[in-house]
Write a structure and sequence with these properties.
Strand content of chain B: 15-25%
Largest sheet of chain A: 8 strands, mixed
Radius of gyration of chain A: 22 Å
CATH class of the largest domain in chain A: Alpha Beta
Number of domains of chain B: 2
CATH topology of the largest domain in chain A: Rossmann fold
Radius of gyration of chain B: 21 Å
Order of helices and strands of chain A: EEEHEEHEHHHEHEHEEHHHEE
Largest interface: A-B, 62 and 62 residues
Oligomer: heterodimer
Strand content of chain A: 15-25%
CATH class of the largest domain in chain B: Alpha Beta
Distance between the termini of chain A: 50 Å
CATH superfamily of the largest domain in chain B: P-loop containing nucleotide triphosphate hydrolases
Shape of chain B: globular
Number of helices of chain B: 13
CATH topology of the largest domain in chain B: Rossmann fold
Bound molecules: adenosine-5'-triphosphate, adenosine-5'-diphosphate, magnesium ion
Strand order of the largest sheet of chain A: 6-7-8-3-9-10-12-11
CATH superfamily of the largest domain in chain A: P-loop containing nucleotide triphosphate hydrolases
CATH architecture of the largest domain in chain A: 3-Layer(aba) Sandwich
Number of strands of chain A: 12
Chain lengths: ~350, ~350
Amino acid sequence: MTSTVSTSEKVGESSGARGQDVDRTTPLLSVRDLQVHFPLKRGFIVQREVARVKAVDGVSFDIYPGETLGLVGESGSGKTTAAKAVVQLNKPGNGSVKFEGQELVGLSTSAMRPVRRKMGMVFQDPYGSLNPRMRAGDIVGEPLKVHGLADTKEAYREQVASLMTTVGLSPAMAERYPNEFSGGQRQRLGVARAIAARPSLLILDESVSALDVSIQAQILNLLQDLQEKYNLAYLFIAHDLSVVRHISHRVAVMYLGKIVETADAKDLYERPLHPYTQALLSAIPTPNPVHERSRERIILRGDLPSPLAPPPGCSFSTRCPIATDICSQTVPELKTLAPNQQAACHLATSV
Amino acid sequence: MTSDSPATSSPLLQVRDLRTSFNTPAGKIPAVSGVSFDVNHGETLGLVGESGCGKSVSALSIMRLVPNPPGVIESGEILFEGVDLLKISDKEMQSVRGAGIGMIFQEPMSSLNPVLTIGRQITEPLGVHLGLSGAAAENRAAELLEMVGIADSRRRLGDHPHQLSGGQRQRVMIAIALSCEPKLLIADEATTALDVTIQAQILELMKNLTTQLGTALMIITHNLGIIARYADRLNVMYAGKIRESGTAEQVYMQPSHPYTVGLLNSVPRLDRPASERLDPIEGEIPDPANLPAGCAFAPRCRWATSECERSEPALEQVGDRQLVACFESKTVSDSVEIAWK
Ligand SMILES: Nc1ncnc2c1ncn2[C@@H]1O[C@H](COP(=O)(O)OP(=O)(O)OP(=O)(O)O)[C@@H](O)[C@H]1O
Ligand SMILES: Nc1ncnc2c1ncn2[C@@H]1O[C@H](COP(=O)(O)OP(=O)(O)O)[C@@H](O)[C@H]1O
Ligand SMILES: [Mg+2]
Ligand SMILES: [Mg+2]
């Protein structure tokens, strides 16, 4: 029995999110002007393109080794589509994706295979993303087989056992099937599988969103441990902005296919410059009744516009509390308004 | 039932020792096992806890909507305006649903009928409970849509649910739930599926409307922030029982049950400086069909003693309006105070 609680009050000197312990000399992943457009087709015999969804429309970002980039934005803003385009699961229409210096756009499937070994993915749904007919051990070990990383049966079994231990599961559970695991345990399996081939980048698409908070906290701690141990980089997609602040070094905010603001996590949360980021942060209720009752919130009007017919000019202008005439006429470019902080807003000013 | 409602000083709803269970192939699941709480006129009460702890089953029991089989309300009393809802006829219960207690569910798509227009779905309860029909019902329906912030309301009455966004569907659900001016509105994870900016819109709307109409509100959610912002009082549930209860200030500022402390330490918080690491509750929720003896939280509790593994602590008063079910609650709240400064 312990008689003290350690709490989230334990902070280092920095008031921001994760410390500046990332070496930003050479990016691991460099994405430039990425575009993914989905044609909307109609017609019974001859399918004609009637419209295009610009799901990802000119997105650029870098991720450095050992760094977490948090990607946030409302449902349909293009987060998953962008992530899939990075691993070439969506063929981007335009733009460049460089991983360890190598251009991935245009690579053949066979040329992509050795690259994909270095990019693991963990998805949202801890129930749907694991093959229900495979044993846990084989789910975790499959990438080892695919990429020929275990020479002998013995080595394979050892590596699977060590992977399971790494994510906090007993190796004895290797014989079980996914339905015999809880949601949190399944997500641990997903993580073990994603790191099996020793990737340098993990793409985590809403990987903790469906979990209860106590289990979510366990997985977040695990992800931080693994990052430290293997210098893993994360592209961390989530809609929970408090989770994103906790895990991210940098954050990019998406709205209707575009990045509208990007900054170091600390700066973005302390001093959001884009009105959408401000509204998003203001919308999050905190578990603090005193704080909540004394706080004014920015309540946005209306819904996200249809991606088939985005408004002219700034796509946020229809819901923006401060929009003026220029906002519905000209598309704002991302401008550097503070060190390491960029926002795409006509009205945001440098600090 | 409305004409002889008792003085507003007595609680609107009194749940007493409610027990609801499910008979499944894996055994009997005691989903709600001895839950008691009150909802006062016009107040907002929060019900919080992780998935499977019995929040929805509590709400469904109050509405007498527990699927049977496999579910049974085994015992207890649910006094609404002094009348035990577990003793009245199905027909009487029908009029309580809607006119007395309105409910909004998590899935707006599954609770709206996809083949009927929005207008039909709003006017129907108006006819059943208030006897409105024809143009009168239609006018009232348009008014209600306007009240929940749906523009161009008269034209929207002809729309089908799939023509609306998730947020708009949830607004329609609120309009329907409030259409007959119930005294209590139960919102079960009503905004969980929505984006945060839409979630904020809907919650502010719900809070403002219930305040205006004097409707009591029961917010069920696993989101600690939502409860902190909107609820006057809250109940924290774990494995079928209320473990802590009090005003929002008491429970968030001086939590006295280890589970409440664990929940609060598990979430990253925007109201505090960022932390390097979270301090989660260890382990996982127990199998509901095989709950441990004694306190069901003991296997995950850092304060647990051998007594906790043997006997079950009762919910007892620890402060002015704060109730806690824990043998070690004094130690817990003292050490939280030290740690949180
Ligand atoms: N295969 C597809 N065909 C057509 N449109 C698509 C396809 N995949 C995605 N879209 C559209 O692209 C846009 C972006 O979708 P995406 O799934 O990337 O959003 P997201 O930001 O991941 O949202 P969520 O938070 O809901 O997961 C949406 O308008 C979506 O409807
Ligand atoms: N229709 C059902 N059949 C069997 N078990 C059920 C059913 N509905 C709920 N339960 C069980 O009752 C318990 C409480 O569930 P619920 O009230 O839905 O939890 P929550 O707090 O997430 O709303 C859980 O163990 C759940 O599995
Ligand atoms: Mg997505
Ligand atoms: Mg529920």
